[in-house]
Amino acid sequence: MESAESVERSDAVASQRPLSGPAFRLISSQLVDWYRRPDQFDTFNRYLADKGLTVASRFLVVCSLVLVTVIMFLTRFSPQGPTTPHARTANAVIIVITVMMAVALSTRRNLSRSWSYAFVLYSEVGIVAAMLLYSNPLAALAHAVMFSVIGGYIAFFHNARIQSLHMLWVFVVVIGIVTRISVVENYSDVPVLVALTVLVGAAIYVIPFACQFIFSILGTDALNSQLDPLTGLLNRRGLADEVRLLLERSYANSALVVVAAVDIDRFKTINDEYGHTVGDAVIEKVGSRLVECAGPAALIARIGGDEFIIVDSGDQRSVDRLEQELQRSTVTAPGHSEVALSVGIAKVAGPFESPDDALIAYPTLLRRADRAMYAAKARGGHSVVLLTETD
After folding, report:
1. Could you give the angle at which helices 276-294 and 316-327 cross, rounded to 10 degrees?
2. Nearest 5°: phi and psi at 143?
3. Are strands 338-349 and 383-387 parallel, antiparallel or unpaired?
4. DSSP states along 35-54
5. SS3 341
6. 307-314 and 383-387: which strand pairing?
7. pLDDT above 90 covers what percent of the chain?
8. Pair 117, 150: CB distance under 8 Å
9. Quick check: 338 and 329 in contact, CB under 8 A?
């Protein structure tokens, strides 16, 4: 009879075999975990901002839109492209809208998650519309490779559920094109059709799926210790690490460093009257609303049950905008009426003589913002108290 130690060794060895039962169970559990992970739009944008890569990533997306525009423009001069007046008009409309999307991406300061969803939806529909304009269905099938660009974008900015919908949509579209080629057009060169379909399928499915799976599993595991599991925002530990990076980057310029302390009004009453499920929904809604108020470059953390912190650097106009947005902030969660927030804001103007001086100033700002937040609650809630440097 084998010892427990030898059985464990056998399982460990078996788990290294790609076709073993333990390996399949491991992969299955990872796929389920991957599918359940939350949308990473805010997390990934914050990561890009922390690393100074926001402009570079935006540039890559704009370049992909420019590439689509160039391809659509070139097809106008091909006998395989749009040949009828209606098709050429539709081609021109797609070019104009794509250029407008590229301009919006280049000029907008902050991009919300809803804007990103709209971009994905437009891309999914726009690529199909472009494919339908080809007079040669084989050329349309080759154009389907453009779906890989959208799959890659989803892989980094959104979640597996959206990626799955994208893949299902692409599958229907590709099957439709292949059916048109083989049945309607009666195309006889089956090996070429199969080879082209496999090539397009690999570009559309394998690369985006691999990016999404690996980035989601490895990236989220690395961030878990710094993130609040309910909202996906930073936790207290993550905020401490990220604040250091923010202040080290901005200490030498004259930007204002701003800290806002946010508390949900009468949250204990919400939990007592409606239950913790509604309470959790309120917290999630508040987290999303704070992201909308502050923008992707700000650090936003949930540091307690109903306590949030926002840290950002910018000019006076950005501080005024944050104050106005928070002043108007209310949220509505399922099963509960409107919820208001009490907010305290403190700020200090740079530049600092060193990063250490900036780090020393941060705890004082945090205490002052907390004091301002309690002053807002003392007013009856649903208000913002801003402390100046002399207060």
Report:
1. 150
2. -65, -20
3. parallel
4. HHPPP-HHHHHHHHHHTT-H
5. strand
6. unpaired
7. 12
8. no
9. no
Per the CB < 8 A criterion, the answer to whether 140 and 94 are in contact is no
State whether residue 314 is helix, strand or coil. Answer: strand
Residue type, 177: I
Instruction: Please check whether residue 46 is in contact with residue 299, taking contact to mean a CB–CB distance below 8 angstroms.
Output: yes
pLDDT tens sequence across 29-54: 666 666 666 677 776 776 676 667 77
Rounded CA separation 97/69 (Å): 9
Listed in sequence order, the residues at least 6 apart from 313 whose beta carbon sits closer than 8 Å to its beta carbon are: 246, 247, 250, 255, 256, 257, 258, 350
pLDDT digits (tens, 9 = 90+) for 115-156: 888 889 999 998 998 888 888 888 888 888 888 888 888 887
Q: Considering the chain, what percentage of its residues have pLDDT values greater than 70?
A: 78
DSSP alpha helix (H) spans, the chain: 4-14, 21-36, 41-50, 54-75, 85-107, 113-132, 137-143, 147-157, 160-179, 190-201, 207-214, 220-223, 236-250, 267-274, 276-294, 316-327, 355-378
Q: Nearest to residue 104, comparing CAs of 120, 115, 92?
A: 115
Cβ neighbours, 10 Å, residue 122: 15
The residue whose two tokens read 């409309």 is 93
Six-digit token pair at 94? Answer: 């797609």
Tokens of 149: 């660009």
The helix/strand/coil state of 333 is: coil
Give me 305's structure tokens.
Answer: 């049950």
What are the tokens at 109? 């300061």
DSSP state of 225: G
**Shortest CA distance to 247 belongs to which of 344, 337, 76, 362?**
362
